[in-house]
Amino acid sequence: MSSTELIGGRSVDLTKATVLVVDDQPVNIQVIYALLCEDYTVLAATSGEEALSVAREARPDLILMDIVMPGLSGMETCQKLKSQDDTSEIPVIFITASYSSEEENECWMSGGIDFISKPINPMTLKNRVKAHLMLKYQKDTLLEMVYLDGLTGVFNRRYLDEHLIKHIHLSKRSKRETCVLLIDIDFFKQFNDRYGHVQGDDALKQVALLVKSKGLKRITDFVVRYGGEEFVVVLPETNISGAKQVAERIRAAIQTLNLEHLDSPFGELTVSIGITGCLSYDVDDSAVLEAADQKLYQAKVSGRNKVCF
Amino acid sequence: MSGRSIEHEELANIDCLAFCEQHSIAWLDVMARFNHNTSVYKTALSSFLSDLGRYQTQLQDKGSLSNSGLFKASMHTLKGVASSLGFYNIADTATSIEQRVKHGDDIRLIEECAVLREQIAYAEGCVPLLIELIEREFEQTLNEDTTAGHQLDACNLREELEVLLKEIQSNKMDSMNTLNRIKNELSQLSRDETYKLSTALNNLKFKEAQEIVTNLLVLGD
Description:
- The structure holds 2 protein chains of 2 kinds.
- Chain A has 2 domains: 4-143, Rossmann fold, CATH 3.40.50; 157-308, Reverse transcriptase/Diguanylate cyclase domain (Alpha-Beta Plaits, 2-Layer Sandwich).
- In chain A, α2 (48-58) runs parallel beside α3 (74-83), α7 packs across α8 and α8 (197-215) packs across α9 (240-255).
- By secondary structure, chain A is α/β, with parallel strands linked by helices.
- A 5-stranded parallel beta sheet of chain A has the order 4-3-5-6-7, with helices on both faces.
- In chain A, β11, α10 and β12 form a beta-alpha-beta unit.
- Chain A contains 10 helices and 12 strands.
- Chain B has 2 domains: 8-143, Four Helix Bundle (Hemerythrin (Met), subunit A); 149-220, no CATH class.
- Chain B has helices at residues 16-22, 27-33, 38-60, 68-84, 88-102, 109-148, 154-169, 175-189, 191-202, 206-220.
- In chain B, α8 runs antiparallel to α9.
- The N and C termini of chain B lie far apart (54 Å).
- Chains A and B meet through α1, β4 and α2 of A and α3 and α4 of B.
């Protein structure tokens, strides 16, 4: 059975998928490994506690979980996975040697999406794993389409609308600053007019890539295409001084791209950046973005290719 | 089956299928379940063999029945493992004992525990022979093939050890294959540490394995 599938005429390669198998008996994991090793990367954990740590670290695409284990049971482990933001979306299939409807109900309630009975029927295991990986792939693709900007590949405005407010709440609760950078490409209309939209789009892609590589150092940081030539970077648990360093790094990196811009006084593509922290404002994402916009305006009026905070 | 002793001599003119048929091990089911990967099945049999002693001790200890929760969980585990490895008679008896403990049916419990002890003792005799047969039937040619063109120098061994360390740090099951590939060369570096590493990985103790590989890397320097 191949792990490459066709969806709507498009070939989907699942060979990079990772499956975590959790069972206190190594023998049972070895059985599953023998069946799946040719098609996927198989990870193993012999306790619920170890599974939680591996899941957080490796973010597998699917978890196959035994129910009866010493320490954290399979159901308790599943509940914990579902309660944590970074692991809640990983589908869990229970592998069970019991057949009681009470236990089945408990599995559904703990967040499992399916069952496989022991002893394992190889065809059933392979097909269930493939079907759920395919569903996960489709869901991930859909989320990408909803949240990613088609041109630059960074997050879009919708993502910012849904996630900035969460970070403001977290920041208020923890009393640790979250900073927002608003980045605008200087004289971008003139760039498009002189060099055309194809080159303009290419410049946007290069800027997005650089902002991502120079601005994001931690898994919680994210960048958004906010408008035409505007980007927002959100830096949780970062104070103004740290954010200023990130912004300077981004500004300098974009200038060193040396993208010709003859209608700019700098002769090359540059950006202006406004910075604000969230703690000084109410729990209101519009107010925070408005404050960042004011700082950006200061950077613009004071000559552009600058960082203001 | 009971009462019949298993002689080493009977291996001389027999293959795995015939041996398993004689000793009620569901070879064909198992091969389908293990995707015909005899190497992984052999590893699983080794782990099973080391666990059988623990079950035997538990069944002999009358006190273990007083902790019904633990005893039931133990039978539940044995049922799953034995059934996965093709020892259906053990799996059936363990299932029956699990049910009797669950429903408090003590009348036939002692009798069934005695049957299970006998079945486990028999399996303890069969499993090493089956492992030997698998090695003879499936691994001889494979070893000849792999050792012929596969001699690692110290530099390559270090690289392979580093790959192994990364796999172990990520709890990857492929680490077992990597270890098998370099086992001979690694044994020359330290036989004891290689044995310990192999045992740790067979039991999927990744943290322990990580420490051993780190030691081996230092030894290699």
